[in-house]
Amino acid sequence: MADIHPEHTHIIEQTKANMPSEEILEKTAEVFKVFGDKTRIRILAALSEGEMCVCCLCDLLEMSQSAVSHQLSVLKAARLIKSRREGKQMYYSLDDAHIGAILCTGISHVEED
Amino acid sequence: MADIHPEHTHIIEQTKANMPSEEILEKTAEVFKVFGDKTRIRILAALSEGEMCVCCLCDLLEMSQSAVSHQLSVLKAARLIKSRREGKQMYYSLDDAHIGAILCTGISHVEED
DNA sequence: AAAACATATGAATAATTGTTCATATATTCA
DNA sequence: TGAATATATGAACAATTATTCATATGTTTT
């Protein structure tokens, strides 16, 4: 690793002081990691249109029930979605407005280019 | 996979019609995947305070030059950051305002809870 | 209570990925 | 030009992870 030039130490200290805590950054990375999978993004995009049951998601995404359920559990553990039971079926929806906002921002970034 | 109830087919078709294309969703997942790593989030958080050279990032993050450079190249390939050379040093900065916005939204989501 | 239906989950496998080590490239300075 | 400095990069290894298969759990219907 290269030596630090004296005129850089100030910038480094100041940046260090202004950055969010390691804990916040770690958690933020974990949240983005959950967004960072095609299957999960497809699920989130579907749910951003409204709540949906597992079998509908399977049909819509043309994926196995097992694969969808596994990813739903990842999304739920990260609190990106919530669930509600209605008889035999489970309905999933986005957990809060933040989730839709993050998704939209990401999609916009991709679309505008 | 369970059968689809007749009353669900409408919802499925409508959701399918409203969702972004597979290509957009795939690219969006790829973007979030790049955000979904602690080292890269730390780099982005540092750069959101202003441009910085590689050796400063190494010092700030207490990581090897090789590890930092590898992640910088991932960030650059995904166009999240851009670089500029000044003599022997390379200065990196966020590519555009979107990047800072996505980062901030993610951090806010983590902080507000 | 048994059968049918909808969903969840453990284990295994295949694929992806982050770091390290060694080394290459590029720029400046003597 | 040669040495020193700053950064980049290929290969290898370890760790993480998404899907599949088989099966378990929970709910309704007969």
Name a few traits of the molecule.
alpha+beta; 113 residues; DNA-binding; homodimer; 3-stranded antiparallel sheet
Low-confidence stretches of chain A: none
- CA distance, first residue to last residue of chain A: 36 Å
Secondary structure: helix percent of chain A:
55-70%
Count of helical stretches of chain A:
6
Major sheet attributes of chain A = 3 strands, antiparallel
Give the largest chain-chain interface (CB within 8 Å).
A-B, 60 and 59 residues
- Would you report the number of β strands of chain A? 3
Q: Secondary-structure element sequence of chain A?
A: HHHEHHEEH
Overall geometry of chain A comes to: elongated
| Helix and strand composition category of chain A | alpha+beta
Question: If you average the pLDDT of chain A, what whole number results?
Answer: 94
Q: What radius of gyration of chain A results from the CA coordinates? A: 19 Å
For the biggest β-sheet of chain A, the strand order reads 1-3-2
How would you describe the oligomerization state of the chains in this entry? homodimer
